[in-house]
Amino acid sequence: MSERERRVNQGLRVLDEAHYSGRINREEYRKRRRQLLGSLCDSHGITARNTLRTRITQQGGRAAHAPAAPDAPLPAPFAARHAVAWKPLLAFALGLVLCVLLVYWLLRAN
Questions:
Q1: Which of 57, 27, 54, 104 is nearest to 15 (CA)?
Q2: Are 52 and 40 in contact (CB under 8 A)?
Q3: What DSSP string describes 23-68?
Q4: Cβ(28)–Cβ(36) under 8 Å?
Q5: pTM, whole model, 2 decimals?
Q6: Considering Cα of 96, then 102, then 105, then 109, what sign does the dihedral take?
Q7: How far is residue 10's CA from residue 18's CA, in Å, rounded to a whole number?
Q8: With DSSP H G I counted as helix, E B as strand and the rest as coil, what are the percentages for the chain, rounded to 5?
Q9: Gap between the Cα atoms of 82 and 79, Å rounded
Q10: Pick from 4, 12, 11, 88: nearest CA to 41
């Protein structure tokens, strides 16, 4: 983390404390927060978030010179994470149901 980022983080902490203690209202908090975060931009308006989104879209097949729009949805690899997490759970539940049915069948046969 650079010195500039440390200073902005410290400023955000102070700003959060002032907002939560009620010394400034929401509009003032948002205005100051935008100013602090805006100070992280370089002369071309590129922030760490923009470069990350550009890098993600480049990996997804877009050209290197075409950054993603700020409101564009994330590419498919991030959307598919939730579907992958359910597969082991579904397999376990199916195995459990099969075991219960097998035990029931064995007990019923005797």
A1: 27
A2: no
A3: SS-HHHHHHHHHHHHHTT--TT---HHHHHHHHHHHHTT--TT-PP
A4: no
A5: 0.38
A6: negative
A7: 12
A8: 70, 0, 30
A9: 7
A10: 4
| CB 68, CB 53: distance < 8 Å | yes
Would you give per-residue pLDDT tens digits along the chain (110 residues)?
788 888 888 989 999 999 989 898 999 999 999 888 888 775 555 555 555 555 555 555 544 445 555 555 555 555 555 555 678 888 999 999 999 999 999 999 87
Structure tokens belonging to residue 59: 């990996």
Residue type, 12: L
Cα separation, 11 vs 3, whole angstroms: 12
Tokens 């935008």: give the residue.
Answer: 34
Q: Helix 3-20 and helix 26-38: axis angle, to 10°?
A: 180
Place of tokens 């440390």: 6
Total Cβ atoms within 10 A of residue 57: 19
